Amino acid sequence: MSGALRWLGALVLLAGASFFMSDYHNDVYRKLMLWVTLALGYNFLFGICGQVAFSHFAFYGIGAYSVVILLFQLHVPLPIAIVLGVAVCILVALAVAIPSTRLEGFYLALATLALGQLFIVVLNEGGAVTGGNGGIANYRLPDIFGVRIRGPWYTAVIATLLVGTFALLWRLDHSWFGRACRAIRDNAEAAAAMGVNVARVKVIVFTLTSALAGITGMVYAFVDNTVNPPIFGIDNAFLLLFMVIVGGAGRHAGAIIGAVLLFLLPFFLSPLVGHHHVLVFGLLVVGAILAAPKGLIGLYDAFRRS
Amino acid sequence: MPSAVLEVRNLTKRFGGLTAVTGLDFEVGEGEILGVIGPNGAGKSTTFNVIAGTFGADQGEVRFAGVPILGLAQHRIAALGVMRTFQHNRPFSGMPVLDNVMVGAHTRFRKGLWSVLLNRSLNEESERRRKAQELVEFVGLGGLAEADVATLSFGQGRLLEIARALAGEPRLLLLDEPAAGLTPDELARLAEIIRGIAARGIAVLLIEHDMHFLLPLAHRVVVLNFGAKIADGLPAEIRADPAVADAYLGSHASAR
Fold this sequence. Notes:
Chain A is mainly alpha-helical.
């Protein structure tokens, strides 16, 4: 039970902090937590299960657009919109995962890259449904039992999502399922010989992490109260990849460190180098791959051992 | 044979125009060590891979505990109780030794992702970890349970392959040239371990190139040449068989 208490403690800390922040810092803090949530899910898919997919951020967008379209274009009640939004993410994930995991890893990368691009095209060409180039704006979260959730209370919702996602993935990782994922990453043929249903585990992980990204996107939809195509561009899919690699692929702590670092870095770099911070990211990634393939968390481990 | 764990009947496997295995028949009983030998290209590895589910076959039948397993996916065959090692070690390089062995126990966990999310899976996890630790000690890697697999020697890696396969609680263990690349000391240790495995009642199918390792160890030996069985008998009979000496040992050995 002490495990559950620890998660609860983390939630109270993360949610509580937002009550002491200005509106601006609350906004940054919310986005930071959303990125950490995404990075944790992507790390499970890429770092733990070894699936090179670029669709994680697209599912974030699919979740956000789904819930907004369902609520404000189709006027579906909130609980049903959430369930349907998750269902959309699961269906799209299955449609991508089932054919592409039957092929070798490279095809998953291609198929998911295509999905990410296709998603942007659909958003731009979606006419009145998606709002085209301008997207959809000027909506707000419907009241829940007459209560309007806003300010630090909505930040608490995001903290709950982060802690819940982390707890779920942590539990899966520390079980036969997580070991099967790592076995597939390390040597798929040996994993199959040990009785792991490789295709099934891959489809489950892809679908689960994509659905988690979709839920994160639904929560994001009420952070800026606007969804539009540039937010969900393919460059963010690579930023997620960079976060996991710089932090340390395959490690939850690595995903968290990478996400925090690469999310906050532009705030400090922009005054110095303007929009060229992407260049710094590129150097960081190349540096990580060459000098520290286990990422910052790997460096920390080596430092502690010495 | 009343208690055959593995029965292979009339097995034929072709690769295009090449017939790798022709009309092969043999069986392995509980607690028996069956050696399969033959020169390079005799069809040993093909036979092995057909039984393990890596390849299909063109003809014939493979039964495990009376159940036909030919054409089943590898993970299905493992779940039934057929575990294997690889000729070239294939560890899971991102995990310590003990976790490698735990992957071998994959099919022995109570399944269902929901049970993972509940506390009751924790007991099962620690119980399996204890059993895996016993297996690590059984193969003589006791002090290395938490070691990074990259730090193991080749011979230790081979022992890890065996411990990992045993974690699946097999009734049939398939060993693909386990002696290859081992030092004389390691060979002696390996022979002891294989005897210990058979003593537990596990059927052992041992594909091997090295006669000097195999003959003292196997209870029975099948000899393949050009994909067909040319002899099947006790190690002493195999040693004395002139057809075997011709095909396998060649003039070099008969001159000895």
